[in-house]
Amino acid sequence: MSSIYKLEDILDIVNAEIANIRFTQKPESLFEPISYILSLGGKRIRPALALMACNLYTDDISKALPIAKAVEVFHNFTLLHDDLMDRADMRRGKQTVHLKWNDNTAILSGDAMLIEAYREICKVDSTYLKSILDLFSKTASEICSGQQYDMEFERRLDVTIPEYLEMIRLKTAVLLGCALKEGAMVAGAPEEDLDNLYEFGINLGLAFQLKDDLLDVYGDTQSFGKKMGGDIVCNKKTYLLINALEDPSVREDLLYWINIVDFNESDKIEAVKNIYNKLKLKERTEHLIRDYYKKSINYLNQLNLETGKKVILQSVAEQLMSRNS
Amino acid sequence: MSSIYKLEDILDIVNAEIANIRFTQKPESLFEPISYILSLGGKRIRPALALMACNLYTDDISKALPIAKAVEVFHNFTLLHDDLMDRADMRRGKQTVHLKWNDNTAILSGDAMLIEAYREICKVDSTYLKSILDLFSKTASEICSGQQYDMEFERRLDVTIPEYLEMIRLKTAVLLGCALKEGAMVAGAPEEDLDNLYEFGINLGLAFQLKDDLLDVYGDTQSFGKKMGGDIVCNKKTYLLINALEDPSVREDLLYWINIVDFNESDKIEAVKNIYNKLKLKERTEHLIRDYYKKSINYLNQLNLETGKKVILQSVAEQLMSRNS
Predict the structure, then answer these.
(1) How many C-beta atoms surround the C-beta of residue A153 within 10 A?
(2) SS3 label, residue A22
(3) What interface predicted TM-score (ipTM) does this complex get?
């Protein structure tokens, strides 16, 4: 009889594995920032998904460890470079790398980190190496495209909802799909299941990012790690803002707050939140999140596996949707 | 009878292949800078070495094309990020990417370019994929270390000659060694030859970089692409400057020119060049270049091949040593 790991066991394994990554190369000044950003924690959702997908087809989840580590190292590499590009001061309550060190260190340690992600993923069973690498590189490239779109959206007021959804698919969803699909690949899962797991990840990722957009405005101040209303303050093109901008009845009012230079942050957050309330954007976003969640579960249900095995992935998806932080 | 390509044929193939690289992904704004920097030209020495090493063991040099393209794309990725970190204005007579676009584009297009290098190298015959990737990633990581040392040397006046030689080994030589070794690997060359080709590349690379240091001071103004004396103006820790700093008889005079804030560039270049002349550093550097050149040829001679096949690599090495630009 095969055994399915519980989520807390999976997370224990992931956290131990990430904590055990050592960079012995010189100079230390280049690799220290990599250890630093990896030590800041995070949900570790991507590596957990890789191991859980693997576990659907084998008890030996160690097969997926290179993938788990590679996707987490890669994800943190993108955070390191994104924080630099966005001039962000804080990441998970600590100083960002470019502030703690400097811009050049952030650039070069990030580059070294991307290379480390590749070194890690190359440790998979050689049978699957080529397919694993092809999907990993395709995904990595798509994430760069997503970040480029995200930055370009900053200078635009006419971003459409399909454009936005495509951006978050690239920037967030494809890595979840990749982690799931590759975790199952190294366990020898059938091709059809691989595609369904990938689509499960894509829809979960879209729901996940929309939930992030929602939490910035309607999250629990206590438990949400980031500063509440941060997206509103810096005019970030979220699903809520793009929807509001498309509504003629509030556009003028909204543009006033977008263009205002000298303002009190709480005033702006309250004013924009009032606009969102008026348009019932909380409900609209929650509705779309539920749609993507349901789609993701449909893909999960199509896996050629007994229901018992899928329960853990379903419950993870539920937790991500109902989270307050 | 097997045929050996001439250098000009190899370069024609390399240039055609590089010119044919197309990035069809979106958004174009992310991939345009990659095409731009690849279009600026350069000696294409790394891809040429990969194809020549392959050609030692097979007529079918197409086997090494993924390696040739990957090392050239990777090399240009390092130039893109290095230019940003060094705040360089010009690259091969044209604007650098971060000036033509902006810093964030340089960061993100560079990241996408590094991923493209991996996508390219993954096209090698799957028999060799794992070993090719392991050496490529090791080399890529070493090059980041080399750049980090180079940047750290900027703030130091006590860099030793062994430290300097290790830095240029990492920053420059290992990619030549990697290109040669991997070119031969995909042609099925014996293990012993692979090691000798790698060492040929290392020594050639060290000689190559020392020649660059020399040309900045003693090159032909007409044919040297970069501004003459550029290294002197910005106090770059070259082999010549490090040697001069170690000499008590000129150190005080040299420190005056290193620390001077307001100066005429030609005055500084002439003054520092006079110090180098006094210490006969041109001769000392030429001597070391010849030593590395000879070592490289020794490794070449150890290859288990008829002499006729090695002539092309020997003549390339000679050309790199005797170049004026």
Answers:
(1) 19
(2) coil
(3) 0.97
d(CA B51, CA B17): 12
Cis upstream peptide for A27 (omega within 30°): yes
What are the angstrom distances between the C-alpha of B231 and each of A320, B79, B213, B258?
54, 17, 8, 11
Distance separating alpha carbons of residues A238 and A266, to the nearest angstrom: 18
Chain B: residue nearest A119 by CA? B137
Place of tokens 């008890």: A59
Instruction: Measure the CA–CA gap between A257 and A279, rounded to whole angstroms.
Output: 16
Assessment of whether the complete model's pTM goes beyond 0.90: yes
| Local structure of B94: helix, strand or coil | strand
The radius of gyration of chain B's CA atoms, rounded to the nearest angstrom, is: 20
Q: Which residue has the tokens 């596996």?
A: A305
Cα Rg of chain A (Å, integer): 20
Write out pLDDT tens, residues A11-24: 999 999 999 999 99
Reading the block at residue B282, the tokens are 């041109």
Distance CA B316, CA B295 (A): 15
Token pair recorded at residue A45: 């959702």
CB B50 within 8 A of CB B67: yes
User: Between chains, do B148 and A29 touch, taking CB under 8 Å as contact?
Assistant: yes
Contact B126, A104 (CB under 8 A): no
List b or e across A209-222, with b for residues whose CB sees 16 or more CB atoms inside 10 angstroms. Answer: bbbbbbbbbbbeee
Q: Which fold has domain A7-322?
A: Farnesyl Diphosphate Synthase (1.10.600)
Q: B52-61: per-residue pLDDT in tens?
A: 999 999 999 9
Nearest to B112 by CA among B3, B218, B35, B12: B35
Q: Do A140 and B108 touch (CB under 8 A)?
A: no
Whole-angstrom distance, CA of residue B17 vs CA of residue B44: 11
Q: Does B129 touch chain A (CB under 8 A)?
A: yes
Q: Which residues of A are less than 8 Å from B85 in CB distance?
A: 104, 107-108
- A4 vs A1, A49, A193, A306, A308, CA distance in Å? 10, 13, 18, 12, 9
Q: N- to C-terminal Cα distance for chain B?
A: 37
B115 contact A CB<8A: yes
